[in-house]
Each structure stands twice: as structure tokens, then as C-alpha cells.
Amino acid sequence: MQLLNQQHQTRHKLQHLRLIQQPADSSNAPATTAEATTATTDATPAETTEQNADAPQLQLAFSADCWIDVRDATGKRLDSGIKKAGQVLDLEGKAPFRVRLGAPSAVKINIKGQPFDLSRYPASKPVTLKLPQ
């Protein structure tokens, strides 16, 4: 069951990578952009563990425009501003992260390759998260 879940996550990540769009204005460019990785759907648990080890500490994928502010444990701002639908941010820093989202329903979050469930937060209200929890 865990292997099937990990395979689903890998397919989901690849779908997001296909949606990456580079902003026209480089001043709003994300701190880092996702890089395409090759993954097989019949990955063994050892291969999947290696993929998670290479996963960014924090990944935010946007399905609609959303204002964000992300800081690490030292207070360093990792990224801030309005992100566009299709953008994917891969962020590295010292955990825990403080993540502020203007529209939680517009964002999918992965922490070290594992999805974080935002469904318990109101879709239309800003939220501040401390991740990982």
C-alpha cells in the first residue's frame, strides 16, 4: 500500500513539473525552480526513499494565483509575493518553516516529498502554518 501511495506521489510530482511556468518578470522569479527528474512507476521502496532524500525540504505548487510569505527558523525570508497558477517553488532552509498563504486552496505543499493536507483550513481565508508540524 505504501509503495502504491509513493508511486501516486511520484506521478503527481511529475504532473506538477509539467505545469511549471517561468514568470515574464524576473524580479518576481521564485528563489528556486523545480527541475525535472526521471522517475519510474515501478520504483522499489529503496529507490523511493532515495527520491524523498533528494526532494526539496519544502515544495509549494500553485493551481491559482496566491500571495505567500515563507520564512525559515532563523527568520530568513525564502520567498514572498504573488505566485501564479502553474508555478512550483522548491525551497531549502532551516526547519521549521513559517508559511503564510493568502489562498490555501490554491496551493499543494510537500514536505521532504510527503504531501501536507491543507483540506482542514478554510479555502478562502489566509492561513499561517508552522511546517513541519
Model description:
The protein has 133 residues and is of the alpha+beta class. The strands form two sheets. Strands 4-1-6-7 form a four-stranded antiparallel sheet, covered by helices on one side. A four-stranded antiparallel sheet has the order 3-2-5-8, with no helix packed on it. Strand 2 and strand 3 form a beta hairpin. The two termini are 24 Å apart.
Main structural class = alpha+beta
Q: Please tell me the overall pLDDT.
A: 73
Distance from first to last alpha carbon: 24 Å
Unreliable stretches: 1-5, 7-51
Q: What is the succession of H and E elements?
A: HHEEEEEEEE
Describe the sheet with the most strands.
4 strands, antiparallel
Q: How would you describe the shape?
A: globular
Could you give the count of β-strands? 8
Please state how the strands of the largest beta sheet are arranged side by side.
4-1-6-7
Count the DSSP helices. Answer: 2
- Helix fraction, binned, reads 10-25%
Computed CA radius of gyration, to the nearest angstrom: 15 Å
Bin the strand percentage: 25-35%
